[in-house]
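Fold this: GNAT family N-acetyltransferase
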Amino acid sequence: MSTRNLDHLFRPTSVAVIGASPRPKSIGSLVMNNLLHGGFSGPIMPVNPKHISISGVLSYPDIASLPLVPDMAVVCTPPKTIPLIIEQLCVRGVRAAVVLTAGLSRIEYTEGVTVTEAMLAAAKPYGMRILGHNCLGLLVPGVGLNASFAHTSALPGKIAFVSQSGALCTAVLDWAKPRGIGFSHFISMGDMAELDFGDVLDYLGSDPQTTAILLYIESIHHNRTFMSAARAAARNKPVLAIKSGRYEEASKAAMSHTGALASNDYVYDAAFARAGMLRVYEFEELFAAVETLSRSRRPKGDRLAILTNGGGLGVMAVDDLMEQNGTLATLSDETIEKLNAVLPETWSQSNPIDIIGDAPGLRYADALRVLLEAKEVDAVLVMHCPVAVVHPVEIAETIIELAKEKPRAALTTCFVGEEFAAPARALMGKANIPCFDTPLKSVQAFMHTVRYRRNQEILMETPPSMPSDFHPATPTARLIVEGALASGHEYMSEPETKAVLAAYGVPTVETHIAKSPQDAARAADGMGYPVAIKILSPDITHKSDVGGVILGLKSREAVEEAAHNMLKRVHEAYPNADITGFSVQQMARHGHAHELIIGVLTDPIFGPVILFGQGGTAVEVIKDRAVALPPLNMALARDLISRTKVSKLLEGYRDEPAADIDAICLALNQVAQLIIDIPEIEELDINPLFADNHGVLALDARIKLTSKQFDGDSRLAIRPYPKQLESKFTMVGGEEFEGRSVTIRPIRPEDEPNHHIFVSKLTPEDIRFRFFGLVSELPHSQMARLTQIDYDREMAFIATSINAEHGEETLGVVRVFTDPDNEKAEFSIVVRSDLKGTGLGHELLRKMIAYCRSRGTQTMVGQVLSENRRMLHFVELQGFKVTGHVESNIVEVQLQLQQSGA
């Protein structure tokens, strides 16, 4: 993940075309024509040894003959020529290339080396960025750049479109231009040999000319860099994705319930949501998303009012809204009174607001003005179906004028019809108001903005703290797992699995192991009746399918008979199965308990994922499930639960009490932490997990192991809380703080409440020195950004101690934000005003310097108010040097972290 040299690619001042050609319809000819007619103001230099000029431009025989070093080169030559061309470009000083040629990964360059591999080997020493290969090229309309062989150009705009499919690129270009929709960047990624989604998202996420990013994704190569970049970009602007290949038959071959339920597409859904992105599913919806993002104002909520001149049209829109889990605004008495004052008596008196088919522009304007001012309405959908008495253009002109009065209004329009309605839709487009031709498209457009806002709210929600008594016995669990691996077992036995879960605090039903039917009967006598018995075999995944589970046995004789019959059935179904005995369990409470499933599987792209849903033997038939990426917290766990149908039952209904949701959330977090700590766990099923108002209980569970070796937490798509960075420090100085023990650790989302208290205890001067201005209180949105960090590119160490009266409190914080290239980390530090002189600030900064050094960061920089002499002296003691003034009253300090050449 890097943005190095991407300005050369996306904002070049000169371009060379290697393989430019005068041959009509050749790639080299199309690229030259597009560059020449796109409005690009810099030099365009064709390279072709066979021609003196191409498209009227002087041609050069080779790269060495170019009169200047181009910022970017477009390469459209045969595959086997490309590695040498890339090397020559690098030697000349070119740092960005667009490789249009296809098939490089399938052609051998030298023995055992593909053309792609040879191309990358040539580029790597020079840091050259390569877009493609096998791509359409790129367009940056704002600078007149059309370095592609597309059949048409793009209008300038604020949306970036990034696609792995060249065919989809041309379709979107063809669709967008007549609708007046423009783009800041139009990028065909191709095979992503070097430049991938993470790099482009990092660049576009901080690009001021881009207000929204739209992705078409076929596959993701680097999960963690994608997630990190997508999360950073989505915090700044909407990021939408359409993912192809939603149905995969491969999941049917999975050995566990979790594997069969959690298809790869569900995992992509979870990844996009966790990054704060919005997913769309269909080609038309993709276009609707572009329309919405380019023209709509974001609503402050999800309550929609529908204004229409046709009752049936309004009902269709409501159906579409309910289908997508939208919210129809309930009109207040005050709003209805205001509408009564301006509408005929025959209006619908409810939402949708049907103002009758003959409604002229004035009636639309009067009703719309009331709705836009209504406190219970967050957005308005204005619909019109053709009638003979009023032309749609009149309605469109009225809406446009009113929108000028209310520029912040969240407004979507729908003009149904073809020839009669087309001029009205064209007017709306020119006025930059989203407009559609069907109720479904209109509602989808509104729901895009709602889902984006919801995703952001979920990600910024402050999670409750984990229970203080959650202290997993990781060494115990690891010993059990290592023992199973040493025995050559792919699947852990039920007792081993439950012991691992118990080590992480997941309540499990008491279980005894019996070698024979007689042993099972004796075990049942010892624990009391009724009991359940289950077959134990590493070769049988789903015990119920072969009659390997018998419940409610009430006597010794019943247990022994059931065990004998079970052995007979299993031997008939699986004659070669290794039967190791039986598990005997006392029948767990039923009553009001719900059967749930918590599972883990390892996705080939995103690594371990957590599954939750309705459990039991019919789990694969019901298919009520949701998935999430670890790590979790209590808020994310609650969101995971809410995305299932069984969540409604868990809330309680009729005489059924609500289940203990906190206990379920804790179990999800315990499982998430388990797979973070024990990478050898490849799959896990807890099914069923009983849940009622008393808590949870795991009745049956299974773990599949892998002997693969992993480098730390590299298999996870999101870097988890780095517990290994926790340390202790003892403060010095002053009677009150001398000898006081402090924990210095990475910040967590749960720290937000304490962080508010910490900021409130800073003096006005310290606040001004930290934030370069007076801040009375940081809003939740800003505090969430400070506490919910991406450990891959940010770090914040906080100092905490236990206050006898208030519990844990925050004493100080140091943080860095590192650029995607890991070259520069910008730091800030503040310690509670009454703790200066205790050595805490020095310890925090020393710890951060050591951390950045260990990650290979080149430089730490910070900005300090010139008058803050104490801070300047403080950082100078740590080796920082003043490098200059950023502004008249702000200086920059810098610390070189790596030795020269390191």
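Residues 249-258 have pLDDT under 50 and may be disordered. The first strand starts at residue 15 and ends at 18.
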